[in-house]
Amino acid sequence: MRQSAPPKTYRVKSFGCQMNVYDGERMGELLTDKGMAPAKDGEDADLVVLNTCHIREKAAEKVYSDIGRLTKNGKKPMIAVAGCVAQAEGEEIMKRSPAVGMVVGPQAYHRLPDMIDKAVHGERATDTDMPLETKFDVLPQRRKVGPSAFLTIQEGCDKFCTYCVVPYTRGAEISRPFSALVTEAERLVQSGAREITLLGQNVNAWTGENAKGQAIGLEGLIKALADLPDLARIRYTTSHPNDMSPALIAAHGEIEKLMPYLHLPVQSGSDRVLKAMNRSHTADSYLKLLDQFRAVRPDIALSGDFIVGFPGETEEEFRETLQLVDAVGYSLAYSFKYSPRPGTPAATMDGQVSREVMDERLQRLQAALNRDQYAFNKQTEGRVCDVLVERKGKFENQWLGKSPWLQSVWFEGDVQLGDMVTVDMVEAGANSVRGRMVEKVSA
Ligand code: SAH
Ligand code: SF4
Ligand code: F3S
């Protein structure tokens, strides 16, 4: 690689889950600390970081086509490939794509500034280590100022569901220490966050020690954060059914700032498929868990993830998924066609399901989920609830915010980003609710 001038501007493009969004923000902070500025909208950046996701197919192809686009017409930005594709296929990318100056895995991106210095001198570098010293120990202070912020508290996964790449790309489960998290949350609140969403691949597996040295779980961390006076809302995602503790369930009935929303992926309603997926819960144990949440928080909104067409899934087994959906009544859910991932056990299992069958099942599942999402929105009509103002709408005076149940609510009013307002929920749509502002609760 040739020598190049030190980059002055950067752009980070994040794909995939919210943890990648968080990592993307932190990379931006690192680069800003190094004296670089974010490229303006519509302008080319000197350095582009592709913060990739490997969860479903065509992930790598997408990276190559992005690189192609960035280098069109003889353009030569410095390109860094980060994220989960970097971890899984970094060496391959380096070989195939000379335009890429550096590859950095999700646990090593704190070393990005050094890699840039090397790239300036024409040295290409790959760093997919999972070092003992964690990136969190060396990342700069938070600068985020939006009303709703992400905070990664747990990373990695030891569950090894047979279809999933995450344990390979993100490594083993680790919990960040309590004191570091409280400090980061305080910083976020000082910089304008009113809501914090705690993130982890298995966020409810988080454990730590509180200020008194007592062992605590996620509920203990949530309680401590709820004491921050200017923090209005706390959420967490994504949970695993097997890590749900009675104390965390109880917290939903006790902590007012903990929002009535739970994202708890189930993947399938068939016990045979769940077993083949290595989920180690059953459809029934999952439903019983949800009942416990409803007992302490009757209005809780429930969300989940589904995979259709896992190898060997029969029509009958797929119908069990539809039955589970009917039994739960999700407010919002994510559903995917099974995608064989290289190196995972399911990729070589017998009974791979055809594309046509997967398409058809996905359509039926999504029809049921859309029906329930609309029904959920509909039953909130006529309620008055708090909405945190998070975005400007398309029209003058129009604003978008989130209800406690994570619905998008739009309304008109004289407000600012970060205000908490009460809104009368007037008209439900498929994906949002139109509201009428009643009053400002706090600015
Ligand atoms: N740790 C979380 C989810 C992480 S991945 C959990 O276990 O709940 C997010 C979602 O992507 C999963 O819940 C699953 O529904 C989907 N997913 C993961 N691997 C997949 C694959 N190989 N094909 C299709 N969907 C997949
Ligand atoms: Fe993947 Fe399963 Fe871990 Fe979730 S729990 S990240 S689906 S292996
Ligand atoms: Fe994708 Fe990695 Fe997240 S594979 S979903 S970016 S953990």
UniProtKB/TrEMBL annotation:
Cofactor: [4Fe-4S] cluster
Localization: Cytoplasm
Gene3D superfamilies for this protein: Methylthiotransferase, N-terminal domain (3.40.50.12160), tm_1862 like domain (3.80.30.20)
GO CC annotations on file: cytosol
Reaction catalysis annotation: N(6)-dimethylallyladenosine(37) in tRNA + (sulfur carrier)-SH + AH2 + 2 S-adenosyl-L-methionine = 2-methylsulfanyl-N(6)-dimethylallyladenosine(37) in tRNA + (sulfur carrier)-H + 5'-deoxyadenosine + L-methionine + A + S-adenosyl-L-homocysteine + 2 H(+)
Domain (MTTase N-terminal) ranges: 8-121
Cofactor binding annotation: Binds 2 [4Fe-4S] clusters. One cluster is coordinated with 3 cysteines and an exchangeable S-adenosyl-L-methionine.
MF terms in GO: 4 iron, 4 sulfur cluster binding; metal ion binding; tRNA-2-methylthio-N(6)-dimethylallyladenosine(37) synthase activity
Domain TRAM: 378-439
E.C. code: 2.8.4.3
Superkingdom of the source species: Bacteria
Keywords (A to Z) from UniProt: 4Fe-4S, Cytoplasm, Iron, Iron-sulfur, Metal-binding, S-adenosyl-L-methionine, Transferase, tRNA processing
UniProt: [4Fe-4S] cluster 2 binding residues: C157, C161, C164
InterPro entries associated with the record: Elp3/MiaA/NifB-like_rSAM (IPR006638), Methylthiotransferase (IPR005839), Methylthiotransferase_CS (IPR020612), Methylthiotransferase_N (IPR013848), Methylthiotransferase_N_sf (IPR038135), MiaB_methiolase (IPR006463), rSAM (IPR007197), rSAM_horseshoe (IPR023404)
Assembly and interaction partners: Monomer.
Entries under HAMAP family matching the protein: tRNA_metthiotr_MiaB
Protein name stated in the entry: tRNA-2-methylthio-N(6)-dimethylallyladenosine synthase
Organism of derivation: Altericroceibacterium indicum
Chain's gene name: miaB
